[in-house]
Each structure stands twice: as C-alpha cells, then as structure tokens.
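Teaching note: in complex prediction, the entire set of molecules is handled at once rather than each chain in isolation. The prompt given to students was simply: 'Predict the structure of this complex.' The entities are:
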Amino acid sequence: MTGYFDAIPPLTFDPDADGPAFRHYDPDRMVMGKRLADHLRFAAAWWHSFCWEGGDPFGGRTFERPWFPADTMDLAERRVDAAFDFFRILGAPFFCFHDHDIRPEGASLAESRDRLNRVADRMGERMADGGPRLLWGTANLFSNRRYMAGAATNPDPDVFAHAAATVRDCLDVTHRLGGENYVLWGGREGYETLLNTDLGRELDQMGRFLSMVVEYKHRIGFKGTILIEPKPQEPTKHQYDFDVATVYGLLKRCGLETEVKVNIEQGHAILAGHSFEHEIALANALGIFGSIDMNRNDPQSGWDTDQFPNNVPDVTLAYYEILRGGGFTTGGTNFDAKIRRQSLDPADLVMAHAGAMDVCARGLTAAAAMLEDDRLEAARRDRYAGWDRPDARAMLDPGATLDGIADRASAAGLDPHPVSGRQEILENLVNRYV
Amino acid sequence: MTGYFDAIPPLTFDPDADGPAFRHYDPDRMVMGKRLADHLRFAAAWWHSFCWEGGDPFGGRTFERPWFPADTMDLAERRVDAAFDFFRILGAPFFCFHDHDIRPEGASLAESRDRLNRVADRMGERMADGGPRLLWGTANLFSNRRYMAGAATNPDPDVFAHAAATVRDCLDVTHRLGGENYVLWGGREGYETLLNTDLGRELDQMGRFLSMVVEYKHRIGFKGTILIEPKPQEPTKHQYDFDVATVYGLLKRCGLETEVKVNIEQGHAILAGHSFEHEIALANALGIFGSIDMNRNDPQSGWDTDQFPNNVPDVTLAYYEILRGGGFTTGGTNFDAKIRRQSLDPADLVMAHAGAMDVCARGLTAAAAMLEDDRLEAARRDRYAGWDRPDARAMLDPGATLDGIADRASAAGLDPHPVSGRQEILENLVNRYV
Amino acid sequence: MTGYFDAIPPLTFDPDADGPAFRHYDPDRMVMGKRLADHLRFAAAWWHSFCWEGGDPFGGRTFERPWFPADTMDLAERRVDAAFDFFRILGAPFFCFHDHDIRPEGASLAESRDRLNRVADRMGERMADGGPRLLWGTANLFSNRRYMAGAATNPDPDVFAHAAATVRDCLDVTHRLGGENYVLWGGREGYETLLNTDLGRELDQMGRFLSMVVEYKHRIGFKGTILIEPKPQEPTKHQYDFDVATVYGLLKRCGLETEVKVNIEQGHAILAGHSFEHEIALANALGIFGSIDMNRNDPQSGWDTDQFPNNVPDVTLAYYEILRGGGFTTGGTNFDAKIRRQSLDPADLVMAHAGAMDVCARGLTAAAAMLEDDRLEAARRDRYAGWDRPDARAMLDPGATLDGIADRASAAGLDPHPVSGRQEILENLVNRYV
Amino acid sequence: MTGYFDAIPPLTFDPDADGPAFRHYDPDRMVMGKRLADHLRFAAAWWHSFCWEGGDPFGGRTFERPWFPADTMDLAERRVDAAFDFFRILGAPFFCFHDHDIRPEGASLAESRDRLNRVADRMGERMADGGPRLLWGTANLFSNRRYMAGAATNPDPDVFAHAAATVRDCLDVTHRLGGENYVLWGGREGYETLLNTDLGRELDQMGRFLSMVVEYKHRIGFKGTILIEPKPQEPTKHQYDFDVATVYGLLKRCGLETEVKVNIEQGHAILAGHSFEHEIALANALGIFGSIDMNRNDPQSGWDTDQFPNNVPDVTLAYYEILRGGGFTTGGTNFDAKIRRQSLDPADLVMAHAGAMDVCARGLTAAAAMLEDDRLEAARRDRYAGWDRPDARAMLDPGATLDGIADRASAAGLDPHPVSGRQEILENLVNRYV
Ligand SMILES: [Co+2]
Ligand SMILES: [Co+2]
Ligand SMILES: [Co+2]
Ligand SMILES: [Co+2]
Ligand SMILES: [Co+2]
Ligand SMILES: [Co+2]
Ligand SMILES: [Co+2]
Ligand SMILES: [Co+2]
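The expected output is the structure of the full assembly:
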C-alpha cells in the first residue's frame, strides 16, 4: 500500500449509493449469456493515470503524485504499487502499459531491457496476487528525441534498428506477463512536411517492420493479437495509420490482413472525420476488428483530448457494432483517457474511471437489448431483401457482365421506385433503449 | 455560333495584355522537353459551366443562359453549340461530361441511351471540327431520386441494374468519342446513417460493379483508364471512396489495383483532411495516380465549394508531385470548378477559366524548374542516404528478423543522434520558385 | 382534411405504446411548478416540413407531396390545410413560417403582400379553430436572386428598400396573427469574398435596418420580441451574425442590446465552433437570450444538416442552461429541422417530430431535476466562494487599482494553491439524471 | 557573444545570394513613401525562439541550446546574450517577450519582480547598444499551475490578485524599456467545462481587470497601446477572447472600445473559422486594429501550430487590409512562430525568420502596388455607387422608417436586378501582383 489512494474504498456495485460506487456496472450481471465484465473487458491505462503530469502545450505539471518524477527505479516501483492499489479499488480486470511508462530509460538498450524486466517482475507478483491481467503492452517509440522523425519510418536506419530492439523487448515482456494483445501505435510514423519525405520508402519500411513483428510473435509462441491503433495526425501532420480503411490498405499491401487487427480509439476516429461506430463497423466488415480505446475527444477541440466517455447514446452505438460483430475476443475496452489537468485529487482519477465504466455498462446493456429485440436488424434485413431474389444474386456472381445486366434492365424497362430510408424512425427506436 | 459568348474573342498568350488573355499560359512553351499544353492537359467541365444554374441550399437559379433549362433536345443542342463556342475561346485541349449534362433523361433507359447518342453525334461533329478532345466521360448516378440511396451500393438490386445500364451506355459513348479515361464518382455510394446500412454487403456490391466495368472496358477495347474520384462526404455523411488510401484498400480487396486509378480533386482532398499534394504523392507511391480535378475548397467552408484555383504556391506543390511521378499519361487537369453564383456574366465564366489556366501554368513551370534544379531532391536523397549502407538495406530484406536486428543493435550500443529536418529551409527553397 | 396524413392518428402520451405516440412528452406533467408544454413551447417549422422538396446540392426533389410545387394560390392553400392537419396530429402549441413558405411570390411587392394576407387569413381561421399559435414569423430574404448579395447589406440600395418592404409586410402579418416573436435571419447578410466587400459600410446598413425594424415594431404596438438567429456561414463564406458574441457586439454598436435578443440554433452553434449550451449560457450572461432552434448538425458534416435532436444528454445540457436563466418567456423550442431526403413517407415527418419532442421532454425533465437537486449549483457556488470575502469583492469595485492590488498581493506574500476543478465528477453527476 | 550563432553572419539584402541573405526584404526600399522596414515593423518573439525546447504533447525537448534550462539567473543572462546576438544577425527592429521568458520565477512576487528588473537592465544595455526596440511586453499568466483555471477569471480571488501584481510588474518593465504596446493574452481566460463555470461572473472579473490595466497605464504615463490577442481555444476548450468580433463586444460591454485594440494572429483567426484578412478588415471596420502575429497554422491541423508564414498570396491579402486601414501605428509584424521540433540547428532558427521576412516583404510590396494601382478599390467603389444617390443615403439617416421605405418601394414598383459580383475576375486581378 502506498497510501495515496487510502481514502477511497474498493468500488462495488450499488445503484443506490450516494458516494463512490458503481451505479450501473455490475460485473456479474448476465447479458446475452455472458457476464457484463466478460463483455466489456475493461482496462486501465498506465500512461495517462500514472505518468502524465497534467501538462499541456501552455503549461507544465499540475498533479502532485508522491512517485513523480519516477526517474529512478525506486520511484518507478513506488508507482507500480500505487497503480496496483488503484487497480484494486477499481476492480478492472485488465491494464495496459508502454515500456516507457513503467521503467526509467537506461543508458543503453541493454540497461533499458534489464530495467523493464525488473519492473515487470514486480508487476508479475502483484498480478499473481489477484491483480488484473494485461490486456496489452506496447512500446513508446515517440517520446525520446531519437524518434522525432519516426521509428520504423525514420530516415536513419539506426533508429529503425533501435525501434526493432525496443519492440522485441516489449513483445517479450508482454508475452511473459500473459498479455492478450500487443499494440503498435505510430505516433510519429508519418511526416511533418512532404518536402523532406520519401513516402513510398517509408511505407515500405513500415511494412517490413510489421512483417518482422508478426514473424517474431509466432516464433516466440505469443498467441495474442497484434494490433495497430489508427490515428490520422497529432503529433505529426500526417500519420500513415490514418484510419481503419487506411490501415486495411497497408495490411493488404504487405499481405498481413489476416495477421494484424486494429485497436480503434473514439477520439482518433473523430479526428479522422468518422464516427466511432463507423470505424468499428468498417473494421468488422473488413475482418480486422480487434479492440477499442474508449476515450472521446471534445467535439469543439481539434486535437486529441482523450477524455473519459460520458455520453451513453454514443457509447451504445459503438457497443452495438461490437456486439453485431460478435463482441471482443482478445480485445477489450481500454480507457486511454486522461482526467483534465485541473482534476488534481486521487478521487478525480478514481471517479473518472468509475463514471466511465458505468457509462459503458449502460451502453453495452442497451446495445444488447437492442440486438436481442431485433427490430433494428429486422429493418436492416428488410431493406436489402430484394437482393435475395435469384436474379439479383446472380448480378453479384463472378460471371455477371455489365452489358448483360444492362440489356436485361433495358428490356425489362426497369424504373425502380425509392422507398423510405426511415432514418428518424430508426433513431427513435434506438432512443427506446438508451 | 450561339452568340452567347460573342463579345469575347479567343484567348491568346499575351503577357502584357490588359484585357482578356493568358498572361502566363503559353501552350507552346517548352518545359522539360514538352509543350506546356501537353504537360497540363487542361479540360473544361460541362456540368458546372453549362448545367449548373447558380443555386445553393438557400436559393435557386441566378444565371440566365439562353439554353436553360435544357430539358428538351433542342435546348440541349443549343447548349452543345454554346459549349463548343466556349471551348474555342478558351483553347482548352479537352473537356469532360456526364450523360446527365448533355441530354435530357428519357422516359426509359432506351430513350436515354438514344438521346445520349444523338447529342454525342453532334458533339462528335464539333470535335472533328477542331474542337477539343474528350478527357473523360462519366455517368451521373446521383441526381435522380432513384439513386437517393446509392447506385452500385443501393439496397434495391433494380437500382444496381439501372446504374449498370447507365454506365454501360456512358462507357460506350466515351469510347466512341475517343475519351482518354472514364471516371466513376460515387456521390451517393455511401450512407446517411449506419442504422439502416449493411456496410459489408454494400462494399461487396461496389467491388462487383467495379470489376464488371473493368471487364467490359477490356471487352469493348476501350484503352482509356478507369478512374475513381475519391470524396469523403457530401452529399452523404460518409462515402466509400473516402480518399486515396481508402480507394487503394478497396481496389486491393477486389484485386483491381493495377486496373483502376484515381482522379484526385483538391477540394475533396481537403474535405478528407489531407493536402492535395499528399493525395497525389500517396497515389504515386501506391501506383494508382491517374488524373486531377484542379478545383479548391474555401478553407473556411466545410463543404465542397469547387472554386477555381488561385494560389500559385499551392498549385506548384501539386504539380511538383505530379512531375516527380512522371507527369500525366492519360490524365489531365480538369476544372471541376464553378464560378460563384454571383458571377453572372459570360466574361465571368471565361475569365475564371483563363485565370485558373494561368495559375496552373505558373505552378507547373515553377515545379519543373524546382525539379530540374534538383536541390530539393538532393536534400531528400541525403536525408535517407543511410539506407544505402549494406547493413541498413539488409534490414529490409525478407530474411531479416526482429530479434536479429535487436541483438545487433544492442551489441553495437546503438544510440542514434537526430539531425535537423530543415523544414523551414526547404520551404524557403520552394519560395524561390513561386 | 387534405387526406395526406389520414393514416396517422393524433399523438397522445402513452409510455407503453408500441405504435405512434409520445413515450415521454406528457404536456400536462408538472415540472418545477409549470406544465411541461409551457416549459418547452414546441413549434413546428413550415419551410422544412411543407416546402423543402428533398433536394441537396447533388440531387433534386425526392418527396412527393400533393401540394407541390405550391406555386399557385390553390396549391398554397392546400398546403395550409395539410400543415394544420399535421399540427393537429402533433399537438404542438406553436408553429413558425417565412412569407416565402406560405405564398407564391407575386409579380410586385403589392401582389406579394396581398397574397401573404390572403393566406394569412386562411391560417388565422385554422388557428382560431383550435390550431396552434404563432411562435414567430420571418421574411425570406435569401432565396430570390435579387438577394444573392444580401438584403440589408446589399450593395444596391434598391435591394435594401425591397427587403424593408418585405420585412414590414411580414412584421405586419406576424403581428396580426398574434406572433410572440419576429425573427431576422441573415442568410446572405455576409460576403463571399472580401475583395468586393465594404465591411464597415455593410455593418452600418445592417445596423440601420435593425434600428428601423425595432422602431416600427414599437410604433405598430407589436409586443413580441425581435430575434436575430446567429449563423456563421452557409450559404455565404462569412455571415455578420456569426454567433451570440458577435451579435452582442453588433447590438451594442447600434445601441439595441436591450431591444433585440437571439434565437440560437444548435447546428449553427456547432458551425461556429461552440457547444449549444455555450451559446445559451453566453446569451443569458449577456442578457440577450430569446429562443432556440432545436436542430442539430451531424458532427462529421461541415454544413448545416438541420437534423432532429436525438441525443438526450446533449439536449439536457441545453435546457439546463435555459432553466438556469429562468426558462423561456416569449421564446420556445422550434424544430428548424428537416427529415433526411430519403425519409419519404408522411409517417417519417410525423415520427421525426414526435421522437424529437420525446427527446426534449426527457432533456428538460432531467435538467429540472438537476436544478432542483442543486448539487451541481452548490458545487459551482463553492468554487467561487472566495469572492464573497470583503477584500475579494473590493477588487472588483470601480475604485480598485492595479497597483493597489499588486502591492497588497506582494506584501501578503500571496501564493495561491489550486484546487481540483472536479470536471469528471460533475460529468458523472449529470449522468445520474440522463 | 555567446558563440551559438557564430557561424552565421548578419543578414543583408542580396537578391542574388545563394547563401543566407534576404532575397526580397530590403529595409530601405521606399514603398508608398515609407521605408519597407517602417511598414513591416518586424519583431522576433523571445518565447518560441529562446525558451521553447521542442516539446509537443507526445515528446520532450529536441533542441540543445547552451542556455537550457535557463532556470538560474546566470543561464537566463546567457540567453539574453544569445537573443541579442540573434537579433543582430536578423536586423529586426523589434522584439517581444513575456516576463516568464526572460527570468526564472522567484519564490515570491517580490523576488520575481526583482529578477525581472535585473534581466531587463541587461536587456536595456543591449538595446541601447544598437539592439532592437521593444514592440511589446506581456505577462505569462498561463504556465504556472496557479493559473490552471485562469488568471483574471479565476474562481480564486487570490489568483486574480497575483495576476494583477504580475501584470503591474510587466507593464512597468515594458514602460521602462520603451515598449510600444502591451499585450494581454488570455490563454486560460476561458473554461474547460461549463459545468463548473460562472460565465457572467468571469466576464465581469475580466472586464474589471482590463479596466484597471487601462487606468494604470494612463497613470504611469505609458503611451503605448494596450492590445488583446484573440484566440478561440487551446489550451482551454473555450476562451473569452474568441475572435475580433467577440473582443469588440467585450470592450463595448466595459466601455473600453477606444482604449484597447487587438493583436491578431493568423493561426488564431483560422482556429476561429475566419481568414486572417477577415479579422484584420473587421478590426479596421470596428476601429480596434492594433498589431499582428504573422504565424500560420497548418490547414490540416486543428491546433495552433505557430508556423512561419510561407505563402505570399495569403500574406499579401493580410497586408492589403492593413494598408487599406492606414498601416501600423504602434503595432507591427511579430513572428509568434516556432520552428518545427525537428529543425535543430541555429541555421534553422535564423533562416526560418529570414524566409518569413522575405515572404512578408513580397506580400506588403504587392499589396502596396495593388492599392496604388487602385483597380480593386475602383471596382469596390463602383459596386456600392448606388448608395451615393440622395434617396439611397436618406434611407440610412436616423429619421428613415421601415414603412416609409416600404411604401416608396412598393409605389415605385422596385424590382432590383442583380449584377455580377465578379469574384473570379477580382481574384485574377490580385494574381497580377503576387
Ligand atoms: Co488519443
Ligand atoms: Co489510444
Ligand atoms: Co468537388
Ligand atoms: Co471532381
Ligand atoms: Co440551420
Ligand atoms: Co434555424
Ligand atoms: Co498561436
Ligand atoms: Co500570438
């Protein structure tokens, strides 16, 4: 016990509580034949909760944590203890981390690896001791100035090699800690200006890097999923993993579309000009849905604000697409969210997570009810029912030809009459559940 | 001669002119061993210049043209004559059209086809008579209410068939008129709400449709390029041909990445959150660059304003990427641009094109000088020079492994030091040419 | 009875209904001592529901209404009857209209006025017959091509005069029909390009016009409120009534800040880069809050989509600010919303309104509970409690000086310690009510 | 001499130079009867050039400067020397600074003031020694955590007092150093969430603060201009000095519209949804134009990128509005711009400024030619010429009435015919100068 969170008791489900509690998230509630906890698979994220100091581009640290600045192994271990205290209060089944979050970087790759393993040992003990499991690990390939021009896509091959070593070490430790996924986030795999960038070359570098990660994963027997987290921009002007559709094209380009999936973040979807549910639905349609980062952007801010979710109808639509696709397998609901820099207290950190978990519980429960009710899906099936006609299906067969269809359409004097899309009525239907 | 443009003489290159003239566009000027006209391959667009009436969502027709409303074959032919008068004044070597632009729709597919062919006959005569050539034809699959929920991606298979017949007819007439490309623009191939949409099914429909177009093109011996024009949204909330990266993924998904290329519009690039030069550079890197629509959006408007280009530095960067990729083959510079609805006079239409052609001439000439000078390219090559080292190249070979690289990096004690990206100095360099 | 809505019975409050009904909107429910209907003051809008034909920039009419195109007085009267049938089904207490919505424009100002009065007579009869009352009237000063460069801000003084005559006639008819407000919407009071615009002159013209409207209103004894509806752009690049803050400055500039208030539209707030609740809260703080248009934009579309509200938490925050400011006086909740162009059926139109009314009822009820509960307000008061100290209040007195405060601060060795802003905890609190 | 910039000689005007030089900025060139240097009044900004370490939200320091971290008075003085070396190389006539930029904060207000004065003494010596003059000083009221919830608008009155002391000290030192303006920038004068914010109270606090600053300025005999720099958001969700129109309303609200002017930044204009030239033209129309920060945002990034200007046509339109308004008086062209974090070298910093100064020189020269040529202004005058008619002018007189105008319009059978707005032709005209 570090004492930092001592004033806050472990949260339990208590819909009538006035103080700290889950008012909606009952982990053991059965929904569509599965525990709510097993549907949602919540994970807390190390970086925003235990490393971020409250800075923004116009101001520095606002938080006062006893483990800051965590630039020694002692402080880093103190942080581990605080984190596991926090996980215990929250009762979240999973957590996520970057190498950079848990150990101070060493003077060499070897020392960094050694430190990573030592902190991981301590984490492993706490995990064994009833602590949460590891949803995913990842490497921070963007904070150190060596990565200022990218990691796998750096113009300097030594940076590529350095990144390879770092990912190898992170994948090893993720494997050792029983991680269910491994995430690649391309913060600086992109460019600031086309004027100094060789786009084709950088895409090739990225493809090779990714292929080696996949090959290595199989060789060490890591059964988890490799995930890419799309983000269109920020910190760089353009990032190569712009959105789900872009990542799909990259994967097809290097033949990895069955090996790698996506970790979709609500805020990144919005930055790319999409709704969150669009990105999820598209990933499902393309067969690459993996996991989610459930943190929103402020709709009036043009950067990644990484706020906790708080809008039940929005969250419902996201889980609806997830459930339509069969739900999570190795993925889960990670809160890659940070409290506002004015939220100074331990209670702010805890209650931000608790409120978000309640919002997600309401969203998933509503989505499940909507799916079981089937009215929305029945309307969707009806809308496309014409395609069940044999002549319609035939048009999609490989042998169909443009002129064959054209001649038949002309001969038949086709004059299709549109029918209502019923958007508002369907939106009303959704509102019965949220 | 319709008389409508009578007051305006054919434009010639005259840098000192005060009245209507090209002040920069000298079609015969040799640039990088080729006529400027052959580099730029300008095309005027039928729809905005001869069909659009000046309406916007809050107001109707502002233009008074003697051929409006062109809902009879007589008026449509009068419009053909006006258009060719206009082409002659402009001296543009190409034009583009939709079926919908040139003929009133008939009561049946057959009548529509017949009318299309009759107008095309008249156009063919004018083209033979020294008129411009056809850069591309396309089908309007978005204005008629039957297409309100898409064409190839419609929930109603009869609409799919109707669209197939229409594209067949347009491809036929494009072929007959010697078109150098055929464009598919997916205005309504997308959705208004996910709630009533089967994303996977619609993507499959779209892929099949596209495959049939390609198969048909080969069968009739059309040598032109099939182009898709990406656009992220508007009129619909989401369009499947969102941007170049998305289209690449779609093409890979149905194995057409060597058959179909992209027609990139500046305004659509911006709506998708990209710079125009990004989309061109990416298309070149992915091997799918085809043609451009050189019309900009207003940076403060969130919709497709389709304005004529007027910023030489911006246009220069676009042509720089085009020239770096080898320049146009079948593609060209189409002005899918409309004059503002307050620009009522014939002179407005002519001078908007003339000014845009001058801007493009300045841009391409500057881009060519920049490329011939090679300082920018030399800086780019230098930046990646490390990758020429054998050990660096080896990391990109198929046999390289993550742990192999990692072990070598660790053993070597790699500690890469970043070097300046020199962005401002490169931007200054560009400013020497524009 | 026109028959058009015959299949749909008048809607009643029935929370358990499966068919058309209000599931949440019980007009007679008492909330904070007032009927829900009297809090919400719903109004249906004539233009989107009875005039808009389903067109968008890429396609024309999709709706088939028996009164289209309503370009004769007979069709216009048929439309009046349909509208009142619709109002009866909905049971909305108010409606709104433009002159342009209800009568075909005449060949002269006199004929237009005459037609306006004749249709108004018919409307008056239907209103007397238990129909809804008039929330506001307004003049359409943007559709006719004469207004393409603005109305009050037109470079042509004859257009200014034409607009004055039109507003006079609309204000007269609004007064006669017992309208509770009169709205000025500046669709084209702005510019397309600064290059041809005299900004200062146009702002002066607008100020004078507004002053004359206010003077006339008083002279004819119109007791309603004059409202300006801010909108930042669309159809023009820039509009002078950009947002609430801008309108406040304009009003102060011509001394009308106590005479004119604002009608705030959710979608316009968003286009201007604000949340809806911000615009309401600011209008309250500045003393110019009047009424609302409760229609949202799609968060991924950069234009005014005018959709029906469907997100209860969002709507709750808006009504919370309205109730904090004391609720509506002459204003109300107008649905300046249009069904999607694919929503073809009468039921789509009715149910879009019904769903929106339910969403608003939920929102206002939740907001009222939140306000009565007072926990949110208590937290707000606590946060500023330091300002109740005499020395703190003294700093805001007119006699306080910068150096006086500075010297005291320095002498006291002030070193203020920040306290948590508790944003997430407050957001959680809101989620208890929605 | 610190030695840091030793490799770079002072820049001179040399259009044919290949190395570091001004290729366009000839300070002594006469334009419209005034030296170019006296038109442009360039200023370098201390914070981005000498304090910013290259960090962004995803990474830390990239720059290596011998004076970093400048947290001692010795290092701070070393930084002063480096800055003046830099100013000498650039030959810029002005510079700007925050208190926070030049001195490490002390343990108390008194110590901070003392340190400020000691560094200012050293700066004064360097300024006397042929160094540049001070365009403006300002206080950093946003970096320290005490200001996390605002300065003048803080819920804690002690923060208000602390801010007052800080501004007093900065204004004193600005006065002593002969500053020509004093800027207030409201980085955190705004809110993160409305839920914990009392908007009306905060606006009142801000108004009082501003009034005291103005009163103090007069009392100490500071002849410079008090400027507010509008910015809509970032770091906070909403800032009270959103844009020029909003600041105008705030000034009118506290009666300071003749005392305070605006410092307009290109990037902030864009964040607020305006063009830069719009904000300048509006400030001129409202009589509050003061100065500019000539740094752009990237059009695809939703945050304040503060890049150096590089687009001559854009810059030309800004200077055109400045010259139309009579040019700068106490204001100038400040580069509140930062080099990219990958631009590591001293040469990057120098050449970024040099390139920007050339771009501005080209822009202002073109704008002046355009204004002297008068064709654009003649077209503008013509467009409004109708308002010179006596009957037109009479409509704007205070005695004019809505019904008086309406009756005359109706009697005269007014039917105004629109004339072309000629936007494209005017844009072509601009392109003759850039
Ligand atoms: Co994020
Ligand atoms: Co994330
Ligand atoms: Co377009
Ligand atoms: Co186009
Ligand atoms: Co609207
Ligand atoms: Co409205
Ligand atoms: Co800025
Ligand atoms: Co600035």
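Point out the following to students. Residues A 229, 265, 293, 336 surround cobalt (II) ion (ligand 2) (CB under 6 Å). Residues 377-431 of chain A form one domain.
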